[in-house]
Give the backbone structure.
Amino acid sequence: MTITVLLVDDHPVVRSGLRAVLDSGVTATGGGVTVVGEAATGEAAVALAEQLRPQVVLCDLRLGDGIDGIQTTAALRALEPAPAVLILTTFDRDAEILGAIEAGAAGYLLKDVAPEVIVEGIERAAAGDMFLTPDIASRVLKGMRDPLPKLTDREVEVLRLLATGAANKEIARALFVTEATVKSHVAHIFTKLDVDSRSRAIHLAQETGLI
């Protein structure tokens, strides 16, 4: 049996390397893996998945402009039929791992894993199983046991204003505080949510119902 895969990564050299690995890969059951398409953006991935109907989409988390890997995962899982989505990325923050799983990803792998692990992940995902390396699995379980830290009422206010696209100066004016105070709130929000950008903070807050 051959498993069909769509590659989603914004770096052509990465897609080329993955294609070489996967086209020569052999699953545990003796089947093969065939790359049926490549996409550099989340939007292109969704369009191609509708057209090509791959069994598995191997997707990076950061995809440059446009929707990110988590949003792409959710969009792919909403298709009919929905492909399994396996995240392959360099980013290993707990919030991103949990966000991907909550969006419907069948697994989350880091790009430093061995090629045979990627092939195994694809095979497991195609079979409808969840596939996580032991270290990632333990972090997912910990994240499920320990919910996100509670934000203060003022931090929630700041986060809601961030979601509107407001700059620090505009938030300061709206809340009648100094710009330095806003920067301090934003830093605390990033720390509590374990994110490194406004877009990730907003996305995570929306996904988890914080705002």
